[in-house]
Design brief:
Elements: H1 10-30, E1 36-38, E2 46-47, E3 54-57, E4 62-64, E5 68-70, E6 79-83, E7 89-96, E8 100-110, E9 115-120, E10 123-128, E11 133-138, E12 143-145, E13 148-156, E14 164-173, H2 177-187, H3 193-196, E15 199-203, H4 219-225, H5 228-237, E16 242-246, H6 259-264, H7 274-284, E17 288-293, H8 300-303, H9 314-331, E18 337-340, H10 343-346, H11 351-358, E19 366-369, E20 419-423, H12 446-456, E21 460-465, H13 475-488, E22 493-503, E23 508-518, E24 529-536, E25 543-548, E26 566-574, E27 580-588, E28 598-601, E29 621-623, E30 630-631
Parallel strand pairs: 2-7, 15-16, 15-21, 16-17, 17-18, 18-19, 20-21, 27-29
Antiparallel strand pairs: 1-4, 3-14, 4-7, 5-6, 6-14, 7-13, 8-11, 8-12, 8-14, 9-10, 9-13, 22-23, 22-28, 24-25, 24-26, 26-27, 28-30
Length: 632
């Protein structure tokens, strides 16, 4: 269990404890006992929050000369590396407003079994990594800090088996931690639509998009000419349960009229509410909409207006909040989720406040920040961003199990909805952002796509596909996913009526011979329950009955079978998988029927495949022709 030492490690634990005591004494004497490469940067000392998270970042720490800093390039946050020796240390000066204890959680990558220790001048806490690779790891005991300035040092209990990397330490006052966890849990979406989804598709369309040949249009023309009906029909043809649609990406332009964006930089929105039109058409077809959002750091003109500062993100967050809130309120329940890219640009951030903004207009909206290779960056989200397949597996490639609620039990995204989002279109790019692009076949054919999706269920995949400037998809993509859609469609149920036997002497239609088949060839007869509904032309009460096919059915109470009387007979068949078939027949009792005879009623059309559609559709109507054949 994370943060605990088992009995077999007690001897080593004692040695480690002794080393920590020595280190603590040295801290008191010298302030920092290890070889120094760089001083602490940013605000020094770091002020500790009284009711929220304080982030101690590795790239701001005072550190041993052999520790290094890795970077993906600004504005993405850097992290620490080169950490494998007990003689190395990270250190921060902090200022506590009052004497109290803090829960301390590392965002760290390292080998299973690595022992770490966090010390101050008045105590130390320990943990042992229980997983391989990037993870959130909480120290066994809170760390006590006195009021005023203290120095916190992070070290290894012994040399590690391989190199560790460090993003941060998160400190939360013990008294505030339960409330923070409760608020995060309460904020999570209560809707399970994503967990019920088979798969979705992603489309990264925007100002950067090109047509199949030639130059791209100006932004206003591009939005004006986008064919929403054709685009949504194409998305529906893929069989996707949801669409993950980009708002911004390589450049920052959003296809909607948004005052909050115009206030930052005019010319980056549109008069046409393209997002709203797409949302309306999708929801009319029962398809959910999730929006992808990029903060625009690849667009110099837009980024220059953000006031971004790694150590003070106030202006950046205020701008972001106003935009996201306006979008959320504009689309309300039509917007089902947010996928925020480059979470490492945001981190650290006031995620609780930002998650509230993200759910403006829809408290059940899904939220995720893309954590890239790192552990989940906040608990104020419920969906694993899932870029690629990394978050679905431990660092040793073992598939991460799910709990009874289908949430990850461990790994980078522990406690979150499992999800994988990856380049599926033609395997080369997320979007068509260069001219004369020919869309190749997807990375998997239809059979492999279906098999992979079924194998990973209930983990959900978003298959990113390519769209041209007008919203059209490549034919090869549509054909492949149409085959996948058909593979996931429930089989239709066909009811064939063999006989309706009228027994006038009993005063009722009493015998039904019915066979049921499924379009996938499986024998459904034994698993089907049918409901027969008989109504008469003079508005006698309908007589329902449930039976299993094939069978004989005695209706009770009896339906009068006077000569010349007409009946409407309806059949509803449902198999064990929930697939439904519907049908109806109008029956007229012939004048020559007498109580002493039994007459067989035959349908003119006994095969009514077209009549049996999904539940909720109106049944087809058929008229029976009654033969004069008399039976003994």
């Amino acid at each position: 269990m994370q943060g605990r030492l088992d009995p077999g490690h007690r001897t080593r634990h004692n040695r480690v404890a002794g080393r920590i005591v020595a280190a603590a004494l040295l801290l008191l004497a010298t302030g920092f006992p290890f070889a120094q490469a760089a001083p602490q940067t940013g605000e020094v000392p770091v002020p500790l929050a009284t009711a929220d998270i304080t982030y101690l970042m590795a790239d701001r720490a005072e550190r041993t000369d052999t520790l290094t800093i890795r970077s993906l390039g600004a504005p993405k946050r850097s992290w620490g590396s080169g950490w494998a020796l007990a003689s190395q240390a990270w250190s921060w000066q902090v200022a506590a407003p009052e004497a109290t204890s803090y829960e301390c959680t590392l965002l760290v990558s390292g080998p299973i079994g690595t022992q770490l220790q966090l010390s101050s001048g008045l105590g130390a806490s320990f943990l042992m990594l229980s997983e391989q690779g990037w993870q959130r790891a909480t120290f066994e005991a809170p760390l006590y800090l006195p009021s005023g300035t203290s120095t916190i040092a992070l070290t290894l209990g012994a040399d590690a088996a391989s190199t560790l990397e460090l993003l941060s330490i998160e400190l939360v006052p013990v008294a505030a931690a339960p409330g923070l966890r409760d608020r995060a849990a309460a904020a999570r979406s209560k809707d399970d639509w994503f967990q019920r989804a088979k798969y979705g598709v992603g489309v990264v369309w925007g100002e950067w998009s090109y047509p199949p040949t030639g130059a791209r249009k100006a932004w206003a023309d591009k939005v004006r000419d986008f064919d929403v009906d054709a685009f949504v029909a194409a998305v529906a043809d893929t069989g996707a349960d949801y669409l993950l649609l980009a708002t911004s990406w390589a450049t920052y332009y959003i296809a909607a009229p948004l005052a909050s964006v115009d206030a930052v930089l005019p010319g980056r929105t549109s008069e046409r509410d393209l997002i709203g039109e797409i949302a309306d058409r999708l929801h009319a077809r029962g398809i959910r909409l999730v929006l992808y959002y990029h903060v625009g750091h690849g667009d110099p003109a837009w980024w220059a207006e953000q006031g971004f500062d790694e150590d003070d993100k106030t202006t950046f967050v205020d701008t972001w909040e106003s935009i996201i809130t306006e979008i959320g309120q504009r689309y309300g329940s039509r917007l089902d989720g947010w996928w925020f890219d480059d979470g490492i640009v945001y981190y650290p951030a006031p995620f609780e406040r930002m998650a509230t903004a993200a759910r403006a207009g829809n408290p059940n909206r899904l939220v995720t920040w893309n954590n890239y290779i790192f552990p989940r960056l906040t608990e104020f989200q419920e969906l694993a961003a899932g870029e690629g397949f990394a978050s679905m597996r431990y660092d040793n490639s073992a598939l991460i199990p799910l709990d009874e609620q289908d949430l990850y039990v461990g790994g980078e995204c522990k406690g979150m909805f499992p999800h994988g989002y990856f380049i599926y279109g033609d395997g080369r790019t997320w979007a068509i952002d260069s001219p004369d692009w020919v869309i190749r076949p997807p990375v998997w054919n239809a059979a492999t796509t279906e098999t992979t999706i079924r194998t990973y269920m209930p983990r959900t995949f978003t298959l990113n596909i390519l769209a041209y400037e007008d919203g059209s998809l490549g034919d090869v993509t549509r054909d492949t996913l149409a085959a996948v859609r058909e593979a996931f469609e429930p089989p239709s149920v066909t009811c064939e009526v063999a006989t309706w036997i009228l027994r006038p002497d009993a005063g009722a239609l009493v015998d039904v011979g019915l066979s049921v088949a499924r379009s996938d060839g499986q024998d459904a007869t034994a698993d089907v329950d049918c409901t027969l509904l008989v109504a008469t032309d003079d508005l006698l009460p309908a007589v329902p009955a449930t039976f299993s096919a094939p069978s004989a059915l005695a209706l009770s109470p009896a339906v009068p079978s006077s000569p010349g009387r007409s009946y409407l007979v309806g059949v509803r068949a449902q198999d064990a998988d929930g697939n439904v078939g519907l049908g109806a027949c109008s029956v007229v009792v012939p004048a020559r029927v007498t109580p002493s005879h039994v007459t067989r009623l035959l349908w003119e059309a006994v095969e009514t495949e077209a009549a049996f559609v999904r539940d909720g559709a109106a049944p087809a109507s058929h008229t029976a022709v009654l033969a004069d054949e008399e039976l003994p």
